[in-house]
Amino acid sequence: MFEQLQFTYFLAFVTFLMVGVMNVVKKNTTLVLAYFFQSFALVVLLSIQAFQQRSIELFVITMILFTVKAVVAPRMFNRIIRKSKLNISTSTFLNVPMTLGALVLLCLFANSEVFSPLKELLPHVPNISAVLIGSIFMSFFLTFNRKSALSQLMGVLSLENCIFVISRFLGIHELLFLEIGLLFDVFFWIIVASTFAHMIYRHYGSFEITKMQSLKK
User: Fold this and answer.
1) How far is residue 91's CA from residue 108's CA, in Å, rounded to a whole number?
2) The pLDDT value given to residue 31
């Protein structure tokens, strides 16, 4: 039991680590790979909970989540990258040292007393709340700091993963049909987002949002 508990904390740390990787990598394929590992960590976490609770409903949700997040989404974004032949991601608004500094500050803020009520909900390992909240903040930061529309889309998907993980650690559960409905919403959002990214490349020849100056006119 203790080893399973430690492994779930490791999965939370993997989620946190992958967001950090997504903030600093330069290749789009590496960005998608980091999202895949983050999604796979979420799938493993739900699989452990489904096994512990002997829950068929949670197992069904886990399989749908695996299909949408770990199979469909990476394949669609990798296909866009191959077609565009733009594997090198655009730069960030902040350089790498400043980006790392901002991530450190966000993690320190996540560990501050502002979020002490949340830590009380996880009394057994209070530091895990700082990791989970830090993951959410870093996902937000990814969407604002990157100049690439593709990277920003991945940031939104990463944010959704982090919220899903923290809800599981807090023991928040919804009805089966509601959770399946939410996952299908994510699935259709991925389709729309990938189509949007493809249209941006076809029109501008790049994913970089700073080249879309004509939209301001």
Assistant:
1) 25
2) 92
